[in-house]
């Protein structure tokens, strides 16, 4: 960025000014943006963690397009809570384990993927890159992870479906439009384009959340979402497609249980990245509430979750609380400012963090974390959310000593 030129003609005008990016309170990991140029893509080699992608997008995109991705509802209490709930959690890592063979393979609705994280449905990838959703589909396909495009994508359903690499499985998000013809047409298109399941977003029926940051650039518009989406309407909708339906945007333990009892194969706990009900709880809190009120649900159905996931430690936390797979919305949209290469880099960053953290925590198999609260201490969250910890064991980590399979250090002394 060049300094303002108060006295044209003077050499003073050419003095470069270091670019400062407001990092919005996100963790400071030493990213030096001083030699970046506002409006230009920084070198991708500067991208070391997922939050760096947000800063690169903020530096590169127009204020309007950045706001579109970044915005959240009202005071963004939930948006912030999603990002910072992790500070209240402690992970228990164990030594003396063979961690030479790391396995991230995870099945989601019976389909095999290479990692337990996926690209969550987020509208309008074209605001970050001309390659739009195709970039996301290709990067996900090459890496073997799940991508779930939004029905409000920049590209149409058949174009995104056609971007699939050989054998790639994708699911597709859908909204409940008040226009039933449109709904039926889209469900048919999704099925015809080869998508294997529907993530049906149930958290913004009728209206979208009020999102100030984006409303400063565009007025809030009619969502065209049905405002009469009752249980009866849901039953009718299940007749409109042969694909499995996963309700997305469930934000209370009550509704998780309701969906499980209605016979859905899975439910997706999400507060929509804080874009719908401000002050809604985080996925961590909802999962704890499900443990408290309806623990049987974890054996009934698969559970996915999202919101503020930026590190492998966040993925492992949600897995340990019972989620099978974890979505990331904004991070991949921001990474797409670098096109497919950026999305691939974001996937690689998270994968490296996961394999590293799993090795350091002493459980090399991703399946070993699922529902295994041995690995996490969530009592600080429980204390605040429930008024008391769920379990009153005063020790901070598990105290049962696993049996020693061979040797005895004491007897060898
Ligand atoms: C720009 C943007 C657009 C989104 N569009 C959709 C959408 O079309 N359908 C949907 O179900 N969720 C949508 N979401 C919500 C995401 O699927 C996801 O729940 C959320 O982004 C997760 O939070 P995170 O961004 O902190 O990872 C959108 C989120 C963002 C940021
Ligand atoms: C800025 O500096 C970093 C670190 O020295 C370097 O990797 C990067 O390429 C530089 N960026 C530009 C735009 O010169
Ligand atoms: C993970 O899945 C891939 C693809 O199916 C397979 O090649 C690989 O061996 C699996 N890894 C482990 C550790 O099972
Ligand atoms: C998925 O992975 C499991 C376990 O590794 C394997 O048994 C199964 O054959 C795989 N399914 C497909 C469709 O590749
Ligand atoms: C989808 O978009 C492609 C590329 O713009 C276009 O060729 C195709 O006709 C569109 N398909 C539908 C069903 O709209
Ligand atoms: C409903 O959707 C169909 C299919 O997209 C469209 O042709 C029709 O005009 C829509 N009806 C209304 C009232 O908007
Ligand atoms: C769903 O379809 C079945 C079989 O066609 C029918 O018996 C049932 O009444 C339908 N349910 C609803 C809620 O429309
Ligand atoms: C949870 O993980 C611990 C540590 O790896 C292990 O000892 C325990 O058997 C696991 N529990 C379950 C139920 O898998
Ligand atoms: C190890 O050896 C000591 C001394 O012989 C014995 O008291 C102890 O029970 C042994 N521990 C295990 C885990 O075998």
From TrEMBL:
<keyword id="KW-0732">Signal</keyword>
<keyword id="KW-0560">Oxidoreductase</keyword>
<protein>
    <recommendedName>
        <fullName>FMN hydroxy acid dehydrogenase domain-containing protein</fullName>
    </recommendedName>
</protein>
<dbReference type="Pfam" id="PF01070">
    <property type="entry name" value="FMN_dh"/>
</dbReference>
<feature type="signal peptide">
    <location>
        <begin position="1"/>
        <end position="18"/>
    </location>
</feature>
<dbReference type="InterPro" id="IPR000262">
    <property type="entry name" value="FMN-dep_DH"/>
</dbReference>
<dbReference type="InterPro" id="IPR037396">
    <property type="entry name" value="FMN_HAD"/>
</dbReference>
<feature type="domain" description="FMN hydroxy acid dehydrogenase">
    <location>
        <begin position="42"/>
        <end position="379"/>
    </location>
</feature>
<dbReference type="GO" id="GO:0016491">
    <property type="term" value="F:oxidoreductase activity"/>
</dbReference>
<feature type="compositionally biased region" description="Low complexity">
    <location>
        <begin position="394"/>
        <end position="406"/>
    </location>
</feature>
<feature type="region of interest" description="Disordered">
    <location>
        <begin position="394"/>
        <end position="413"/>
    </location>
</feature>
<dbReference type="InterPro" id="IPR013785">
    <property type="entry name" value="Aldolase_TIM"/>
</dbReference>
